[in-house]
Write a structure and sequence with these properties.
- The protein is α+β, with helices and mostly antiparallel strands.
- The chain has two helices and two strands.
- The chain has one domain.
- 26% of the residues lie in helices and 12% in strands.
- The radius of gyration is 23 Å and the shape is elongated.
Length: 100
């Protein structure tokens, strides 16, 4: 396994453009790019299939974990009810009285 890091300010314009193309987002001057190269895993225990590098993308920042869909099946009313309870509990209600 090998890791390399590159300060964005040290990259040539062509290198920066290439990294931005691979990452799918623009880079800021205050960032660095870290590349980690790993060996492909051998066959999965008990099977003959090999895991591809593409199957390792589940925890990358641009993909959200499954739990974020926890409210997906709620109606707007149900969601508003839960939000009201959370905001009340956290005392972050958006309504306020200026006369107090």
């Amino acid at each position: 396994m090998e890791s390399n890091s590159y300060s964005v300010t040290d990259l040539s314009a062509d290198q920066r453009h290439a990294f931005e193309g691979v990452l799918g987002q623009p880079l800021r001057d205050d960032q660095c790019v870290i590349i980690h190269v790993a060996d492909q895993p051998q066959s999965i225990a008990g099977g003959s299939e090999t895991e591809s590098c593409n199957s390792r993308t589940a925890n990358q920042p641009h993909e959200l974990p499954e739990w974020v869909t926890i409210f997906a099946d709620l109606s707007d009313e149900e969601f508003a009810e839960i939000e009201a309870a959370i905001l009340t509990r956290a005392d972050l209600s958006r309504s306020f009285d200026l006369d107090e």
